[in-house]
Amino acid sequence: MSNAFLVSIEESACLISVYQSSPEQARGGIAPRTDGTCTWILRDSMYNDWLILNTSRLLWVSGNSGCGKSVLSTFIVDHIKESMPASTVCCFFCDDKVDLQSTAVSLQRSMLHQLLSTKVSLLNHLLPDFEVKGGAMFIEEILLWKALLACLEDPNSGSVICIIDALDECERRGRTQFLNSLTKHFNREVVLSGQSSVEFLLTSRPEVQIVDVLAIPTIRLKIEDQLDNVSADIKLVAQEKISELASLRQFPQRTQDWLLQKLISDADRTFLWVSLVLDMLKKSAQASREAFKELLSSLTSGLEDTYLKMLERIPKGDRP
User: Fold this and answer.
1) Which residues, 6 or more positions from 218, have their beta carbon under 8 angstroms from its beta carbon?
2) pLDDT tens, 107-165?
3) Is residue 71 within 8 Å of 275, Cβ to Cβ?
4) For residue 247, with 0-12 CB atoms within 10 Å meaning exposed, 13-18 middle and 19 or more buried, which class applies?
5) What are 287-291's contacts with CB under 8 Å, separation 24+?
6) What digits encode the pLDDT tens for the residues 281-301?
7) Where are the beta strands (DSSP E) in the chain?
8) Do the beta carbons of residue 119 and residue 157 sit within 8 Å?
9) What per-residue confidence (pLDDT) applies to 285?
């Protein structure tokens, strides 16, 4: 944070009041990326049109559960920060299991704080409401959106790229209001003026309520249309995890090869299924091919079935 540029106690108080949590904390719950995965997005024409064209645009990356959207989001955040240092990158990772990551209020406060921390001159847009409302302004969605939009439209904000992951895990009422405001912004005939440029990338499951709101003016990248890329990434993840498991349980290369082929053929294009199954194998009492085969034969390729099997292995009193 560039505190040297703060010119008043009131501005400092405003910046402190808007803060709730850091995106780095939120990323702690996301699996680390396996080397070589996610790089396909850098070659995708839809993604590059969104990122490189000199206009403000909204890109929606949609995909079903377990297809790697959150890991992809962290990769995009890191890559843009490294390759476009002149741009301000704001990110938020929704999580319906964490209070501070599951509401539209928390989302907008986080984005606003990240932007203000790099462009403290934008605090001027918040001070009139802050003088009247104090910290209470940061729990009102209308005032939050008003402040965020004013900052984004200010030419002094420069190039701003906002990445919001797992939007379907944000509470529905606030999410709908936020998306309506966002699409209204991008639907305007003249989106931004001067030197300001803002781009949003959203990821979520293709829920009906989100599909309806984001129909226009969104560019939609469907992960289900990236079968070869996702399958290649799943193979890399499976190879890494099987290698780790083999080192731990000391089973031979032929068992590793068989297990990799079995997982790839049954994975149904979901990273989560591979991770859940390998976690079950890791906890298995035996590490032979026969034992693994018996366990795998009791599962289908669906996530729901695998969840149920995992629950059956947990004592009833400890189940969620």
Assistant:
1) 58, 59, 60, 183, 186
2) 999 999 999 999 999 999 999 999 999 999 999 999 999 999 999 999 999 999 999 99
3) no
4) exposed
5) 287/249, 287/250, 287/251, 288/251, 288/255, 289/251, 289/254, 289/255, 289/258, 289/259
6) 887 766 677 777 777 776 654
7) 58-62, 88-93, 159-165, 197-204, 219-222
8) yes
9) 65
Question: What secondary structure letter does DSSP report for 303?
Answer: H
Which amino acid would we find at residue 253? Answer: Q
Is the pLDDT at 243 greater than 70? The verdict is yes
In whole angstroms, how far apart are CA 310 and each of 135, 256, 315, 318? 44, 22, 10, 12
- Residue 306, both tokens: 């695998």
Q: What share of the chain is helix, strand, coil (3-state, %, to 5)?
A: 60, 10, 30
Task: Give the number of other CB atoms < 10 A from CB of residue 78.
Answer: 15
Show Cβ contacts of residue 91 under 8 Å, excluding neighbours closer than 6 positions.
23, 73, 77, 114, 162, 163, 164, 165
- Token duo for residue 137: 């302004």
The reported pLDDT for the residue numbered 95 is 94
Write the DSSP string, 7-21: --HHHHHHHHHH---
Crossing angle of helices 271-282 and 289-297, in 10° steps, is 130
What pLDDT band is residue 311 in, cutting at 50, 70 and 90?
very low
